Amino acid sequence: MNKLTHFIILILALLLTSCATMPDNSTSMTNYYGSEVDLSKVIFEGGDGKTIETSVIIRNAGNERTGIAAEYDYIAKKLGKKSQDWIPVSQSITSENGKMYDVIDVIIIPANENITFYFDITDFYGKF
Predict the structure, then answer these.
(1) Domain range for residue 51?
(2) Cα–Cα distance measured from residue 108 to residue 116, given in angstroms and rounded to the nearest whole number
(3) How far is residue 101 CA from its own chain's centroid?
(4) DSSP assignment string, 74-113
(5) Which of 43, 74, 112, 127 could cross-link to 59 by cystine, CB 3.0-4.6 Å?
(6) 40-84 pLDDT, tens per residue?
(7) Is residue 48 in a domain?
(8) pLDDT by residue (tens digit) across 5-48?
(9) For the chain, how long is the longest CA-to-CA vector?
(10) What pTM did the predictor assign?
């Protein structure tokens, strides 16, 4: 085989392996972590999450990995499929009155509307 044939075989192999990657169609953070996250024990309490005063309280997550997955699962249940119906724009942490909060900004794709969700993460913050 000549060098051109080797080069063509290499290019074809690279193209085939790159096409084998599946798109991320998850509604939670499962694909981000590479394994399934058990949300069966997570409890959502509090309000609708539109303000810090009406934040969604996440209980029984046990650790930050599960807690963050629960946040994105909650948003997906409210807004639909991630990357199709909405996309996350930013995520930050803040504290108030001794409690820790995640603030997640998303854009609703069809309406091009920004929405902010507030989650009380005190129960799992800092737990790995």
Answers:
(1) 42-128
(2) 11
(3) 16
(4) HHHHHH-SBTTTEEEEEEEEEEETTEEEEEEEEEETTTTE
(5) 43
(6) 999 999 999 999 999 999 999 999 999 999 999 999 999 999 999
(7) yes
(8) 655 665 655 555 444 443 444 444 444 455 689 999 999 999 99
(9) 72
(10) 0.73
